[in-house]
Amino acid sequence: MKRVWIYLKGYKKECVFAPLFKMLEALFELFVPLVVSAIIDKGIAGKDIPYIIKMTVLLVVLAVIGLTCSITAQYFAAKAAVGCATGMRHHLFAHIQGLSFTEMDTIGTSTLITRMTSDINQVQNGVNMVLRLFLRSPFIVFGAMIMAFTIDVQAALVFAVTIPVLAVIVFGIMLSTRPLYKKVQAGLDRILGITRENLTGVRVIRAFNKQQDEVCRFKQSNEELNHLQKFVGKISGLMNPLTYVVINVSIIVLIWIGAVRVNSGTLTQGQVVALYNYMSQILVELIKLANLIIIVTKALACAGRIESVFEVESSMKDGSLERQEAMQQTPVVEFKDVSLRYSGAGDESVSGVSFKVFKGQTVGVIGGTGSGKSSLVNMIPRFYDATSGEVLIDGINVCDYKLNVLRDKVGIVMQKAQLFKGSIRENMLWGRNDASDEEIFEALDIAQAREFVEKKDGKLDAFVDQGGKNLSGGQRQRLTIARAMVRKPEILILDDSASALDYATDAALRKSIRDMKNSPTVFIVSQRAASLMHADMIIVLDDGVVAGMGTHEELLKNCEVYREIYYSQFKKEA
């Protein structure tokens, strides 16, 4: 809850005024039974019609003032709650964006989505209800008891016994349900994870005719969550009947004592009605308080889950170096005995890799599936940090650079072509937000994408669906390549990003990259030997270890792994 208070600091005025106006509403509400008592004892008993009318008008005035206070309190409470949730959501999103790929892999996408949406909404609801009822309900309960003592001490003793009993019931149920609500939210994480998998992988599921299996898996997880929610609901559901039993028994005792004392002339009928009204007010407020406790219990559980994400520190610390000009003869990229082991993995994905790459050179990275090709190039922009050894750019360890400076130097095209909802122009501006249309078309030319872009309605303003689902695989890949080209990076990494392109387009793409004016250092990750044959250096990986390094001709002579890959794709000459 400490973090909630941090975000409420900017709403101190609202946090004061919301409960204050609720207390005013409660104060006017406490006067109502006294007015009703006066109407019965003086107006009705004395048949004084003007007095009855006057007191009725007073009741209406009290109601109007109470309503005004209630609406004002609701406004301030809602403003504070929504503001708190907005600030928390923004900071949580920024914190998640600052986590490295390692933490993102460990925590999981589905649980992060749940915590940013459902959990924060529960906290918002909890803050709203606390500001409105946390002071009002206890004030009414204890205020009603004090008012009862001013009417008759003996009858008010019923209140003194009833309130502690009700407090034990309410807080006992709250303490028992809080840990269960955490389990409910964890179950919601699992449901969201399955839903996300099914929606993103719907084509694969249908291709393998696994719809029914996935329906069963979802149903099983949903049933588990359903049973848990029912169990928690049953415990929470005990609150209302138990409080009703205690209150109704108290009302019976109160009416019995009141009847005896009216008979003896100690109490008036109006005072008994006032005591009954105070007991009814306590009943209503305790029901509200019971519901508040359930909401607060959920909010506390969700706040704990949100806090656990904030407590996760990125394993990748930002460097301090702003920019470093490369010296002549200094390698643009250098690996010094670099190894990488993913968090929780049993073995290294990359082991003991060393090489140097100079400005303008093209480096090919080839190897079998799972040989560590993507892992190798992902260490250049610091998506993952090397477990041992050093990765240097312009002679400086990548860990010493500020992350934004380092990634400004690098343009990377991932294996999966990911586009965002919007226009083609908006997607291109991800590369550089001040790029002109001429620079965008230049990048599209290099990526062999200009032809199909110009055929679309609106050209650069043509709509791109989420994930680029209204484009073919090859079109998506070419647009993601163009997006990286817009940046005009010093280092360009193409991570198997031309797999959907035909050989002719792939060859034209590589030629355009070689002819680029700024002559970037290029890393091409591919399983096609044809894509790498003309590279200045080819790195052959086998199970994370360098099996060979050199030009195409050198590797054909000296590297058995490269020969196997090459001759599996090209017919061996006699």
Detailed description of the structure:
The protein is an alpha/beta fold and 574 residues long. It folds into two domains: 2-310, Up-down Bundle (ABC transporter transmembrane region fold), CATH 1.20.1560.10; 333-569, Rossmann fold. The relative contact order is 0.08. Helices cover 63% and strands 10% of the residues. The chain has 20 helices and twelve strands. It has helices at 2-8, 12-44, 49-98, 101-107, 109-133, 136-151, 153-200, 202-207, 211-237, 239-263, 269-310, 373-378, 403-409, 424-428, 437-446, 450-455, 473-486, 503-514, 552-558, 560-569, and strands at 333-340, 350-357, 362-367, 388-393, 396-397, 410-413, 422-423, 463-464, 491-495, 521-525, 537-542, 545-550. Helix 2 (12-44) packs parallel to helix 6 (136-151) and helix 7 packs antiparallel against helix 10 (239-263). Strand 4 and strand 5 (396-397) form a beta hairpin. The strands form three sheets. It has a six-stranded mixed β-sheet with strand order 6-9-10-3-11-12. Strands 2-1-4-5 form a four-stranded antiparallel β-sheet, with no helix packed on it.
